[in-house]
Amino acid sequence: MKVNQINVESNMNVSDLIDNFDASGVLGAGRVARARNILVDMIQDKDMNVFMSLGGPLIPGGMRNVVSKMIKEGHVNLIVSSGANLTHDLVEAFGGAHYRHEGKDDEELNEEGIGRIADINVGSDDFTIFETEITKIFEKIASKRKVISIQELLYEIGLLVEDENSFIANAAKNNVPIFAPGIIDSMIGLQLWIFSQDHDFTISAAGDMPYLSDIVFGSEKVGAILLGGGLTKHYTLASNVITGGLDSAIQITMDRPEAGSLGGAPLEEAKSWAKAKCGSNLASVVGDVTVIFPLIYASALDKINSD
């Protein structure tokens, strides 16, 4: 089959552009189109539960509203998040913000109480407010529960957060469970440890497993949207080993496979571990999630709404 050249027109929408990628079918354009097509199939398949993993600085990087929209639209049924993305969601929920980096020297930023994430800045004042507000929430939850799983904790936090754009709040309100196996490796984890020093309050990581396994066993099919690599990707894949692996998945990552890391591994490699089923529908895209996934999701919505 020949390669069709990509055409760009002045009146073209994002779906038309990715249809052109699909017709070309090669290199990165073809991978993006394949990921879009798989995402459409996952969303439209009413027998499929869709898991989403959030690795890397996606919330400070501008993906907060996208994740919340997917929850509200019923396009995702379970989330596995890094502790950092949870923290940054709550920073904004408590009135803080993320700012564009203006090129200042990092030592100067340190003096001004500003932390840098690539080209994103976060002020220490916003984290001070975060620490105060999350402690108030912990106190409310600890008054009812002495031992709680991570997923249950995040559900309770979500019910107490008043922000229509918070993905934690939207997940709680729409009964989309959030799992965060690496929650301690974050500012929210640090505050949990500090709080536990003078409160009878224990977080059970193993407490998540019965509920998670029930969801996996109760799913006729499971699809996955893997944004970034690392722990969140592996937790999503590994949770489905008990049923022979994922039925469908897309991943977007900047990691490369040569070093042998899971983050850069193509999804096909997961078949050897039974983390993805033989015959499963998979697509791996190498690129920046904050660029590629909004394009894919916007195009998928256009496809779905035009059917």
Automatic annotation (TrEMBL):
GO terms for cellular component: cytoplasm. The keyword Cell cycle does not apply. Pfam families: DS. One of its GO terms (molecular function) is deoxyhypusine synthase activity. Coiled coil: none annotated. Keywords: Transferase. Belongs to the deoxyhypusine synthase family. This is Deoxyhypusine synthase. It comes from Methanobrevibacter gottschalkii DSM 11977.
